[in-house]
Amino acid sequence: MEWLIQMKNALDYMELKMTETLRIEEVAEVAFVSPFHFQRMFSMLTGFTVADYIRKRRLTLAAQELAVSKVRVLDVALKYGYDSPESFAKAFRKAHGITPSAARKSGVQLKAFPRISFHLSLKGDQDMDYKIVDKPAFTVIGKSMEVTTRDGENFRRIPQFWDECNEDGTSDKLIELASSREWLGICMCMDMEKEMLTYWIGVEGTPETDAQGYETAIVPAASWAVFRSEGALPHAIQGVWQRIYQEWFPGTGYEHTGGPEIELYPPGDTSAEDYVCEVWIPVMKK
């Protein structure tokens, strides 16, 4: 119940500050969590980044103001955080399909992005097993790409990236370099404010492993909450991700550290109902 109140308070604070400079550190402080944890929780629970939510709400409020008042477009643009009428008009047209000036016309249709609210959902019908694993830093060998989290682009692009790596033989070549027979999907370098992350398809190696031209990186030492997923992909593991953020984090005294998130995939038929893989989240006690 406490987390629900904290998230509601954070939403109230954002709504009050829509016409002011909004710093994520201040919003997270209202929710009594770290900025990264708040942004990650918000994104996983709502499907929007904090920045995307604020942008959509501001453009909704701006459209309402233009429709009922004679205030100048420039003044509305500045009020809702845009540096120029041009940047405001571009964002406004993308959101509403018309120019800011056209929003003043009688009978014109505008799109409204309503304020989000959170509601308590009592489930408890299924236990959520997990374990805490302390793992030292390790080397990952693989292939990476940068992708935006804006408008859910990461959810579309990452599956395509897996298809590309499977089709061009990258996945098979990587597993030959692995110190264990498991593929890793890693969300690394997550910058929630810039709405960007670096996604890796790779394997765990050692500092002595010949990367054979592939990229290498170090995943730092951490305490990991490890969750088991059983069932066909991607549905089964998507359900695990939802439960981690909807049930596990709110119901425990843990918080995301801001480090990489990992999906661990052993060999096997990923379409089988008994396929088992894991989700690894770096955590710390609040």
Automatic annotation (TrEMBL):
It comes from the Bacteria. Coiled coil: none annotated. InterPro entries: AraC_E-bd (IPR010499), Cass2 (IPR029441), Homeodomain-like_sf (IPR009057), HTH_AraC (IPR018060), HTH_AraC-typ_CS (IPR018062), MarA-like (IPR050959), Reg_factor_effector_dom_sf (IPR011256), Tscrpt_reg_AraC-type_HTH (IPR020449). Gene3D superfamilies: Homeodomain-like, Regulatory factor, effector binding domain. The lineage of its organism: Bacteria, Bacillati, Bacillota, Bacilli, Bacillales. PROSITE patterns: HTH_ARAC_FAMILY_1, HTH_ARAC_FAMILY_2. Residues 8-106 form the HTH araC/xylS-type domain. Pfam families: Cass2, HTH_18. The keyword RNA-binding does not apply. This is Effector binding domain-containing protein. Keywords: DNA-binding, Transcription, Transcription regulation.
